[in-house]
Amino acid sequence: MMMSRNGAKVMVTAGPRLFSSSAVSPTHLLKSNLREFSKMTFEKKKTGNNQSEKGSSGGKGDEGNKGEQLIVSYWGVKPMKITKDDGTEWKWSCFRPWETYKADLTIDLKKHHVPSTLPDKLAYWTVKSLRWPTDLFFQRRYGCRAMMLETVAAVPGMVGGMLVHCKSLRRFEQSGGWIKALLEEAENERMHLMTFMEVAKPKWYERALVIAVQGVFFNAYFLGYIISPKFAHRMVGYLEEEAIHSYTEFLKELDNGNIENVPAPAIAIDYWRLPVDATLRDVVMVVRADEAHHRDVNHYASDIHYQGRELKEAPAPIGYH
Q1: How far apart are CA 143 and CA 183, in angstroms?
Q2: How far is CA 57 from CA 191, 267, 269, 275, 281, in A?
Q3: What is the pLDDT of residue 60?
Q4: How far is the CA of 187 from the CAs of 95, 98, 182, 183, in angstroms?
Q5: Kindly report the CA angle at 183 between 181 and 184, in degrees rounded to 5?
Q6: CA-CA distance, 48 to 27, in Å (whole number)?
Q7: Is 0.85 surpassed by the pTM of this model?
Q8: Could you give the CA distance from residue 278 to residue 256 in angstroms, rounded to a whole number?
């Protein structure tokens, strides 16, 4: 009885404040919402709409940044405003100016590791066996072939870097820079994909194929690297040798006029610091050089394991382009 009387007194006292129109007026709600909303501002950055020039000032590659949303929060994490040497705005968010480079086109493309041991022969013939269905599926559609194969080529570096990273954590030891070197390789291969996406657009069944192949290859390479890193790196070395061969055939088709030598995508011009009038042939040349460098790194990593040593004992070739 005492509680009901007290409750009634509370309702009589607080009732007008709770239920009157002045207590929850629209003005009060608006002010409250503005205070909450002021903590985070969402700003849309429209890029690429008015950019039609080729090269570093625009082109097809700009499409990847259209409608990009920059989020500025009260946590203090703000988007970086980066400019190029000429003072113009840097439009790529997937890589920065200090990550660009000029490819070394003088690298020896004919170097080959002759398989002598059983694991080497197994790695070599595994790669050779994969070439037949690839040739059968893509025929001479080298632009599409390059785009699709780069979705697989970017996997080994990521898997290897991840496993070396976890090993470094478990053993409380440094990695000799190999984590960064392998992840750098994976990122470089991914940039190949971003480039060729501007040249050849994947069809729905090709996208489905990527999902299936990547799922199988990721898990197979993951297990292979755990069982034998020297075998895994050797296989990637042979895969890169095949990639060099594929891009050489791509160049022959371009030189023979069977494939149109279109202007280079803007993303490729900025990433490899190509001239503004660069063409698809120039892009294939630098990509082939990248593959040759990946070939060397992976054969080198396999050789380290064959000598009974660990990767951390040999300085990693970071930035080897």
Answers
A1: 25
A2: 19, 10, 10, 12, 20
A3: 43
A4: 10, 14, 9, 6
A5: 60
A6: 40
A7: no
A8: 18
Token output for 174: 């440094």
* Pair of tokens at residue 272: 């490899």
Q: What is the pLDDT of residue 73?
A: 67
CA distance 286 to 109: 12
Residues 206 and 151: beta-carbon distance below 8 Å: no
Question: Which residue type occupies 249?
Answer: E
The answer, yes or no, to whether residue 235 has pLDDT greater than 80, is: yes
pLDDT at 159 over 50: yes
Q: Give me the helix-helix angle, 204-227 and 229-255, nearest 10°.
A: 150
The tens digit of pLDDT for each residue in 274-318 reads 999 999 999 999 999 999 999 999 999 999 999 999 999 998 998
Q: Is 284:250 a contact under the CB 8 Å cutoff?
A: yes
User: In DSSP terms, which residues pair with 71 in a beta bridge?
Assistant: 42
Handedness of CA 173, 175, 180, 185 (dihedral sign): negative
**Closest to 231 (Cα-Cα) out of 245, 219, 242, 221:** 221
